[in-house]
Amino acid sequence: MQIRDALDADLPGILDIYNDAVQNSTAIWNDKLVDLDNRRAWLAERREQDYPVLVAIDDHEQVAGYASFGPWRPHDGFRHTVENSVYVRSGQRGGGVGRSLMQALIKRARELHKHVMIAAIESENRASIHMHQQLGFIHAAQMRQVGCKFGRWLDLTMMQLPLNRTPHP
Ligand SMILES: CC(C)(COP(=O)(O)OP(=O)(O)OC[C@H]1O[C@@H](n2cnc3c(N)ncnc32)[C@H](O)[C@@H]1OP(=O)(O)O)[C@@H](O)C(=O)NCCC(=O)NCCS
């Protein structure tokens, strides 16, 4: 398996994984399926902002997963903090893809001198909470019933990873 920056050719694979998460999980709190143009615009925006989009490519040259980070909140004072997202194709989970993507993503964040990485995770997503804990993220907060999907309220677990010890911004 290879981890590298996403190419335009990876967009159909990214689209599949994204729409599967929309349709079948509470990992992402969107209800609407998107098309290729939507993912193309997302990738272009990330590139323009100098934020990475990484893909894991399996032995069949298929996208097994992807990970990215973007701004956490829009105001200037939050510019040293990023929020990550990570998705592994259903059927390829539990084999180390998510961890490898996240390790590469964290390295990128450190290279960009980001200070904190935030993960906002649906509170019943044990796999994601466990993986982030293993990567060094600590529990920051749990926010009750701040979302909804599939006709029920969702709680949000906030986790954070310190990326450097820089004493002043
Ligand atoms: C969460 C996700 C990214 C993890 O990626 P993965 O490739 O399946 O995970 P890995 O194989 O790299 O495992 C990482 C750690 O999580 C653990 N883990 C994986 N699946 C698990 C599960 N279902 N329950 C509990 N722990 C699990 C692994 O055991 C491993 O921990 P360990 O080092 O203590 O053994 C992946 O399952 C996924 O894409 N899920 C659907 C989308 C999603 O939830 N994205 C995150 C949104 S916040």
TrEMBL record:
Pfam families: Acetyltransf_1. SUPFAM superfamilies: Acyl-CoA N-acyltransferases (Nat) (SSF55729). PANTHER family: N-ACETYLTRANSFERASE (PTHR43072), UPF0039 PROTEIN C11D3.02C (PTHR43072:SF23). This is L-methionine sulfoximine/L-methionine sulfone acetyltransferase. The lineage of its organism: Bacteria, Pseudomonadati, Pseudomonadota, Gammaproteobacteria, Pseudomonadales. Signal peptide: none annotated. It comes from the Bacteria. It comes from Stutzerimonas xanthomarina DSM 18231. CDD domains: NAT_SF. Residues 1-164 form the N-acetyltransferase domain. It catalyses: L-methionine sulfone + acetyl-CoA = N-acetyl-L-methionine sulfone + CoA + H(+); L-methionine sulfoximine + acetyl-CoA = N-acetyl-L-methionine sulfoximine + CoA + H(+). One of its GO terms (molecular function) is acyltransferase activity, transferring groups other than amino-acyl groups. Keywords: Acyltransferase, Transferase.
